[in-house]
Amino acid sequence: MRNNGLIMLKLGGSVITVKDKALTPNTSAIRRLAEEIASSQVSPLIIVHGGGSFGHPLAAKYHIVEGFMDKSQLEGFSRTHNAMMALNMLVVEALVGEGLPAFSIAPSSLIITRRGRIQYIHKDPLAVALKLGFIPVLYGDAVLDYELGFTILSGDQILSKLAIELNANRIIIGVDVDGLYTADPKISPEAQLITYLTIDRLESLMSMLGGSRSIDVTGGMLGKIRELKVPVMNGIEVLIVNALKPNNIYRALRGEEVVGTRIIRG
Ligand code: ADP
């Protein structure tokens, strides 16, 4: 085991699901990523994954992100949460299948938000699990909210908040593109990969960036960058890589050279 401080790994919904097909996991990507994580041998590690085609279409259908408006949404809240648990089960099973001590932790049981922002997080279960050697696996979830009743909490917000609260060393974000570009690379052929970025350049860049292409109720790449600002300001290094390309997550976890976007405080 290599212990260089806590690593937070995000597996994007765009990676572990087929984003344009409702409730469809990308089974081969999940299996390969579990293998890469196992062979990297890094510890301590927390994994947070996104919802992709499991979470977002249901959340959008029942307007969960907007909060409680009428009772018919309660079923939608349950369905969204259940879909996320189903996806989480696939991820955790794959990790356990590789011999990793992965442990599913439901964000909605630990976290309560206020107007969509994390207001309270019960981090003791995470800290104790980490200490025992578990790899906690969390996800973007339907959560309860003091003002809205409920809402959707992105995996990206959970990742950033936990990174700060638990003093993480590094954040690695796996998405379906090579990193952060000057524009959405799926729409703009002239978009250029930004391989290195400091916090002061991040601000000016934020106004240029687009959201995600498919339904994403939590904000796409722009949402990620917004969340990452505080951890980067706290000195946590961020690396965004393409997790659909074999070995990128392995290399990123090992601290090896990999194509992607590095964001540091500077
Ligand atoms: P995930 O679901 O994996 O967390 P998202 O789909 O929310 O990821 O966000 C990643 C997507 O954001 C990419 O697939 C890309 O199409 C889109 N995107 C928009 N603007 C940019 C940008 N400037 N650089 C990179 N990707 C971008």
Task: Describe this protein's structure.
With 266 residues, this protein is an alpha/beta fold. The protein has one domain: 3-Layer(aba) Sandwich (Carbamate kinase). Helices cover 40% and strands 21% of the residues. The protein is built from 10 helices and 12 strands. The protein has an 8-stranded mixed sheet, with helices on both faces. α7 packs parallel to α9. The longest helix is centred in the N-terminal third of the chain and has 26 residues.
Task: Summarize this entry quickly.
With 266 residues, the protein is an alpha/beta fold.
Q: What are the defining features of this structure?
A:
about 270 residues, alpha/beta, Carbamate kinase, two-stranded antiparallel ribbon, binds adenosine-5'-diphosphate
CATH class: Alpha Beta
> What is the CATH topology descriptor?
Carbamate kinase
Please, how many domains?
1
Q: Total number of β-strand segments?
A: 12
Distinct helical segment count? 10
Tell me the strand percentage band.
Answer: 15-25%
**Shape assignment:** globular
